[in-house]
Amino acid sequence: MIQRPRGTRDLLPPESRLWQAVEELARTVFASFGADEIRTPAFEPTELFVRSVGETTDIVHKEMYTFEDRKGRSLTLRPEGTAGVARAWIENRLHDRSHPLRLYYIGPMFRYERAQQGRYRQFSQIGLELLGADSPLADAELLLVLHELFTRLGFDDLQVHLNNLGDPEDRPRYQQVVRETLAGRREALCSDCQRRLDENPLRVLDCKVPSCQVIVADVPPVSDVASEASRQHVAAVEAQLERLGVPFVRNRRLVRGLDYYLRTVFEVVSPRLGTNAVLCGGGRYDRLISDLGGPSLPGSGFAIGEDRLVDVLPEPFKERVLGARRLYLVPLGAPAQAEVLALAREWSRAGVTVEVELTGRSLKSALKRADKEGFAAVAILGDDELAGGVVAIRDLVASSQQVMAAAAVPDWWKGRG
Ligand code: AMP
Question: Which one of 87, 358, 393, 416 counts the least CB within 10 Å of its CB?
Answer without folding.
Answer: 358
